[in-house]
Structures are given as C-alpha cells and as structure tokens.
Design brief:
By secondary structure, the protein is mainly alpha-helical. Helices cover 37% and strands 8% of the residues. A hairpin with a 5-residue loop joins β4 (352-355) and β5. α7 (133-158) packs antiparallel against α8 (182-199).
Length: 599
C-alpha cells in the first residue's frame, strides 16, 4: 500500500485555494497553515469531510470507471459484448494478481485514511451558535460510518484485510501492517456501525443532506456484514482451514458457529423495526401496477425504501449501456437466458426445472409455460400481442427488468432479430449478445440523442434487502417459522406474486429465499456475493451461458431467432475464485500482507 504522507500536496489542495505561481513572499497567510490550523476553521473541516465521500463507488458503472463494479457481469445474470472488460476476464478465468482491478483496494484505503485524519483532528474544530455540538457529532458519525463502509467493501472481495483505524505518517513502520483475522474485521465493522448510530440521525430532514449516511444506513450495513459472517464462505469454511499469515495467525474462523445466524437475524430485525418506526417502508406508491412500482423504485430517487444511496448526478451511463441502438444506445447490458428463465410464472410456479445437455429447457408442466409459438393477445403494460409465448404471464418484475424481443419500450417495439433495428446485423462492436437488454434502472424519459439525462442514485442498502436478509438468517437459525414467511411474502405481495406455499421444510425455504433474492435484487451486485457466500458459485458461474440466436431472424415471428444458442462457457475455479487476489503491486509494497489462497 502507498501510504505516503501527502497531506500538503493532495489534501490541502482540495481544501485551500492556492496559487503556485506566486513568489514565496507574496503568499497569503492561509497558504502555509498546518492541518491543525485548518481544522480550527469549520469550512475547511467540512471540506475535508466531503472529500471522504469521494471513495464511494459509483456501482452504476457495471463496466469501465476503472472496474469498480465488475460483479454484475461476473455473475450469471449478465453478459456484455466487450471482451476486454474486467468482468469478462473473470468470466474466462483470465485474471490474476497482476491484472486484477486494483482500484477498489486503492480507493477504499484512500477513503479510510481520509476518515482517520478527519477523526483525529475534528476535535480541534470549535463549536458556536452556527456550528453546534450536535452537528459536529453528526460529522463524526459520518466519518465513522464511511470508514466502516470502506472496510466492508474490501472484506467482501478479499476476506480478511488490514484494519486501519488511525492515521499513518511517514515515520510509521508499514511492515507492521498485516491482514487481520476475518472475525476481527467483522467485529470492527459492527462496532463502528454501533458507534456511528449514536451520532447519526435516523433520517435526513434537510434535502441537501440526502446521500449522507444515517442511523438506518448503519443498521443496514451491520445486518449485511453479520449475514455474510454467518454464511458458509466466512463461517468455518474448511477451504481456508490452513490459511494463516507469516506469523501463523489463522485468518478465517476455524469452526462453524451456528449462532451467527441468530446474530444476523437479530441485527436485521433491529434494522427493520427501527427503520419502520422512523418512517421507512417498502416503496409501494403504484400498488395497483406492480410492474411500474418495481420500475420506479429505482428511478424515483431517495424514496421511502432507500436506506443509503450514492448521488451519481445527471448520469447517462445506465441508459447508454442498456438502450438499444435504435434509441442511440450501445446494446451493452445483456441479461443471460438463465436469468430470464429464473423469473417465475405469474402463478408462482417455476417455468423451467433444469436443462438438457444441449441447453434446451426441462419445462415444468404445472407452470403453464410454453416455449414455442406466439401470443395473439396483449398483456396490459407487460407484453404486446405477437410476442413469443415464453415471455407472457411471468412475474411482474420480469417486465420491469428485462427488455425482450418484441417488448414495447419508450414507445417502440424492440427488434432484436438479426436484421431488426436493434439486431446484430446493423450493429458494430456494440451489439446485443443474448437477445435481451436490461430495463431495470433505466429511465424511459431519457433521450440520448438530445443529451437529456436524469439525476441518478445508486442504492447500496434498501429495506427490501433487509427483509430478505432477515428471512434467510431466521430460517437458518430456527427454520421456516411464521416470521420467515411474513417477510418473504411481503416482498412477493408487493411484486404482485402469490405467497409461498405453507409447510415448506427448512431446505425448501432456503431454496425459495435464494430464488427470491435472485429476482428481487437482480443486477444490484447481490447475485455475485450471494453465490460466493453460499459457496455455490462453482456451479452457477462455471456453466454454459445461453441466449437467443442473435445471428438469425428477419422478423418478430421468425423461429430461427428463438433457438437457444451457446454464447460461452464460463470458468470458475473453487476455492481460488471465491476471493479476489490482492494486487501484487500492493503486496510488493508491504510484504507482510500475504496473498489469498490459490493466487
């Protein structure tokens, strides 16, 4: 890690306006102030706090922006046409400690260091009539939360990481920096969340403060980190039984602890109760139209369900990547056929129960799913007449999430067949690889050709996730008791889906909860981390990826387009790929930070 003490060069430049062209004798008094003097001024302290937020990853970028979110492409839910993207290198198994995207490591530790400096010096900032102790405490809570957030971002891909809870200067011995046992990392984040909650308001009353953490955000992060801690990847995983550092310190818990599920359930329930008491609730503004309701959940910023989100500004990346070429988009974000197949029928039945060796589906006859033929009737705002039968009568969230061949979007019908307006035949490098485009998150009021974009946020935590976190943890701790049904069914009811059947066994409920997470939280980065923490990624991420036959078709009803076609066979080596490799460049700087197993 590069821990050069760059305050005078980097930090002060962001706080104090200077002119390096002035002669030394012409400097203003502020140009030579010390950090202690800077923190004695409220505006400088506030600017320093604001700079800590710069590390919040803009995960709306599934590709590019230095690969801060390769997780959606690396999971089994999406493909893209650009082979050089880091998520695609992960799909092929062509990643290592030298080409791994290191920006997450760099950005998170930069943010942690800024938070540590702030927390060290904020005590010097005086309070007065315009800057009360309560405001100061809120700033402290924000910095503590962000420090914990950045640590957790690292933990979820690297596992055990160095815990940095103090500012480091040039005189410090960086050879003493080591990865800490995973349980210590979990405890650190949990304790930071607990401490931050004392200072943070549960909600932000001032609209100018939206995007800053709250007590709700701290409760949500605590609940998620404890869920991860209870899960098979982190809880007594035999794959890491011999994973020790060069001092012989065991870095992963050696023994499975079933009580961790109860701790996770308790934290999630505490989050739900306190958040709902503070006015948070599931977004259900358009309750009579579950398709619109689910779509707007991700378009209407800072709504009642959002517990913490990043303000991304007036950003058009989502629409550029997911709009078809006929709407000036790049055709780039392509849901896989497997993700499409995962959406239940509207009657709650799974349409497909498995696959034959050639990729053709094993259809569930009880579901009513039909793979062939075309419908003669429209389905309100879900599908128009003439589309393939495989796309009708599905979970309402399907129609809010997936643009399929013949779907109506922004006033026109999608034409994904080869010679269609959005097809492979008229596209260059930016082409639709699966015959599907991502609809979720995209604002239909955006006009790319006119440069008209909308304000965006990226949701890190929302109440719907916490409902499912609670249901999963409680089921693992106690089995499918009534509370488990209550919170899963609340999500399904909001989506316009029937309740789960009564009498499920614990293992059956586990399968149902995992399925619900795959649909409700699709493309929100959860799928990658869920399959890894459940230790099923070796199955989900190493199988053939299919789509429609994008090289064929001359019309909506051309049968040739609807042939399931192999796109690629992905590579996942367990347990190696369960964790990211640490960037070798960072290990070279601090050799006591050891590499993850297999890398």
């Amino acid at each position: 890690m590069n821990y050069k003490y760059l305050f005078s060069v980097l930090v002060m430049l962001s706080l104090i306006t200077t002119s390096c062209r002035k002669d030394f004798l012409e400097k203003t008094p502020e140009e030579d102030i010390t950090i202690e003097e800077a923190f004695q001024k409220r505006n400088y302290a506030e600017a320093f706090l604001t700079d800590i937020y710069a590390g919040l990853p803009n995960e709306i970028y599934f590709t590019d922006l230095l690969d801060i979110n390769p997780f959606v492409v690396a999971a089994d839910e999406m493909n893209v046409p650009w082979p050089e993207k880091f998520g695609k290198l992960m799909n092929k198994g062509s990643w290592n400690s030298y080409n791994v995207a290191g920006q997450i490591w760099k950005n998170m530790y930069e943010g942690i260091r800024k938070a540590n400096i702030f927390l060290k010096y904020i005590k010097l900032t005086p309070v007065d009539a315009d800057f009360t102790q309560q405001q100061k405490d809120t700033w402290i809570g924000e910095a503590m939360y962000l420090r914990a957030f950045y640590h957790f971002q690292l933990m979820r891909i690297y596992g055990p990481v160095p815990i940095l809870d103090k500012d480091l200067g040039v005189s410090d011995d960086f050879n003493t920096i080591r990865r800490q046992p995973l349980q210590d990392c979990v405890d650190f984040v949990v304790n930071e969340c607990n401490a931050a909650m004392v200072y943070l308001p549960m909600k932000r009353a001032d609209l100018r403060e939206l995007g800053r953490p709250t007590g709700a955000a701290a409760l949500a992060m605590k609940a998620r980190v404890l869920l991860y801690s209870a899960s098979p990847l982190w809880n007594g995983n035999p794959d890491y039984a011999n994973f020790v550092d060069n001092n012989g310190t065991q870095l992963f818990p050696a023994q499975y602890d079933a009580n961790k599920w109860q701790l996770a359930a308790n934290a999630a329930k505490e989050c739900i109760d306190l958040c709902e008491a503070a006015g948070y609730k599931l977004f259900n503004v358009y309750s009579s139209d579950p398709v619109k309701n689910y779509q707007q959940l991700f378009i209407e910023n800072n709504n009642s369900e959002v517990l913490f989100a990043r303000n991304s500004g007036r950003d058009g990346w989502m629409e550029k990547s997911s709009f078809p070429s006929s709407l000036s988009g790049w055709n780039g974000w392509n849901p896989t056929q497997g993700q499409v197949d995962a959406y239940e029928m509207s009657n709650g039945q799974a349409p497909i129960t498995g696959y034959n060796a050639n990729g053709t589906p094993v259809v569930n006859p009880a579901s009513g799913y039909v793979e062939t033929g075309f419908t003669t009737t429209a389905g309100a705002n879900r599908w128009p007449a003439g589309v393939r039968n495989m796309y009708i009568n599905r979970d309402p969230r399907f129609y809010a999430t997936i643009n399929f061949n013949g779907a109506t979007f922004v006033g026109r019908q999608m034409q994904f067949w080869a010679s269609g307006a959005d097809g492979r035949g008229v596209a260059g490098r930016d082409y639709n690889t699966t015959g599907y485009l991502l609809k979720k998150f995209s604002d239909p009021t955006v006009n790319i050709s006119q440069g008209r974009f909308s304000l965006k946020t990226w949701i890190y935590y929302r109440l719907g996730e916490i409902y499912l976190n609670y249901a999963e943890a409680l089921n693992e701790a106690t089995g499918p008791v009534a509370e488990v049904y209550k919170y899963v069914n609340a999500i399904r009811e909001r989506a316009g889906m029937p309740a789960l059947p009564a009498g499920l066994l614990k293992e059956e409920m586990r399968t149902r909860i995992r399925q619900e997470r795959r649909i409700e939280l699709a493309f929100e980065t959860h799928r990658y981390f869920d399959t890894h923490r459940w230790k099923i990624a070796a199955t989900t991420d190493s199988k053939p990826v299919y789509g429609m036959n994008i090289a064929a078709g001359t019309s909506l009803t051309d049968e040739a387009f609807y042939i399931r076609t192999l796109i690629e066979t992905r590579v996942f080596q367990a347990p190696k790929h369960n964790l990211f490799p640490l960037p070798q460049s960072e290990i070279d700087k601090a050799p006591n930070i050891i590499q993850n197993p297999g890398w």
